[in-house]
Design a protein that fits this description.
Helices cover 0% and strands 55% of the residues. The protein is mainly beta.
Length: 114
Amino acid sequence: VQLQASGGGLVQAGGSLGLSCAASGRIFSINHMGWYRQAPGKQRELVASISSGGSTGYADSVKGRFTISRDNAKNTVYLEMNSLKPEDTAVYFCNAATVSEAYWGQGTQVTVSS
């Protein structure tokens, strides 16, 4: 499985950004897809996830502000980020999980200025 992430950038606090991640390869084996983030000096944390059936989960810190969605026809997962805060600044990573493997896309920087 290969993951190609895009989006991110610089935005002022209160603004919005979108991320997308396209999967290729053995995509039929993917169960969950999600987004993680890692801020400087901090551990990587789960932001949002979505199952093949569309069930979603969110970190408490982003509930109500971020929305994860999945287009199975395009093998793409999206993360819509609204009401962004400076503490959302991090490198965001796309993740795809099968029953036995986890795959990572390249990170994309999200910077929220105050």
